[in-house]
User: Fold this.
Amino acid sequence: MASRKPFYLLVGLLIIAGISLSLHRHYTYDIPWLPGEKRQTWSIEAKVEFEATGGEVLASLAIPSTQPGFTQLSQHTASPGYGLAYTEKENGGQRAEWSIRQARGEQALYYRVDMLLDPYAVPPKPSQPPELKVNIEKEPYATAAKQLLDRAQERSSTPFTLARELILEFQNQTQNAELLAQLKPQINWVVQLLQQAGVPARAVHALALEDGRRRQELIDYIQVFDGEEYKLFNPESGEQGRPDNLLLWEYHSGPVLEVIGGRNSMVTFSMIEQEQPFSVALNQKFSESELLNFSLYTLPLEEQTLFKGILLIPVGVLVVVLMRILVGIKTSGTFMPVLIALAFIQTSLLTGLIGFLLIVGMGLMIRSYLSYLNLLLVARISAVIIMVIGMIALFSIIAYKLGLTEGMKVTFFPMIILAWTIERMSILWEEEGPHQVVIQGGGSLLVAVLAYLAMNNELIRHLTFNYLGLQLVLMALVLMAGNYTGYRLLELKRFKPMVEDK
Assistant:
């Protein structure tokens, strides 16, 4: 007897691979296990205002991109009469640039971006540490700054602790802090002293997200690097870490807004929080995804809709396998119930059952007449196909005349399969009688209904579409069922008298 170890090894590998791929999808791309979940998005509008002087105008605004915690979904602008271009600087920062040949008076430009709150967001390019710059200050500012830095270095051991202690020193040594504030803001001093100590740091501009707020301004944070890793620090309190709902707007050592040909420029922000189904959010998130993300969300919507139906077929196949091998239900055709179940999904269960029974019932009556004509098989099947098409058209017209719009959905039935079903049942009637027709026909409908209930389940539809690895698990289950050689459940009734005799 051949060893079954390779078989069990194959089944085990399929299950492990399927579950591993599903877990990878969940934890890497934030795909939920349950349907109906929503994702939080922020719609943020930046309003650029300035007074044009009458000549050429070039306005450049820093814009956010995908960053840890946030994924950019879409961006739009409203700037009548202006040319627009999205540019990327050498340091990695992205900007929106408006240009016009001539403008005068008050101007207002709008930029809107939708950001998905995404704990699994991966920036296209990691944030790079800034170049170290050492500035030489004149006295007495140089001495005051050195005192602050020396005291902070005494109580620190890492770049992050140095940044925290330096901010606290500005709060504790009020005289030195007030003196330095006469020359430049505190945040600039902290960044300068960190760079003087060999720690890459820079001031970044962030936006505190709060639902329904208007005309908000950016706030400053300090970004401190320790190798490739960085931490954010509040320059006022020294608190380390990114607060909830804090979006980094400009973090590449560049200006937020530059206007050439205008004066009195400013930018303010309005924001609103929204919730949308995860499928909508992920369609946008994966619209320009990387090659190794094998997600159906990267396909056009038409193909996504197609695959939502195709990926349900293995579920129906598993139902048929279990009902035939384990239960012992006879069906007319091996996988005809799956095709009928697909038709039920399109027509609804009640409409599909009525339409199926009417078409097959009338088809059997007409097919019985064709038996007397002694036609060849190909011609007979062709005649049945034409007959099925005619009956479907007739039922659709009658349903429309009676105002029964549901009846028009019988056109979703696979006509070739219906023709073969009628042919097989007619032959079965002639060879084994109407009893077998009822058994196999009823079995086919029962299995089709069970397959429909499984395939039309919202949770199953969600899992099969979003977790392609589950197809491997379904294959493993089919292989395991195919290895079963015991009694079927319906055979227990057949052998029951043998047990009673004992």
Notes: Residues 39-131+203-276 form one domain. The first helix runs from residue 5 to 29. The chain has three domains: 39-131+203-276, 133-199, 309-496.
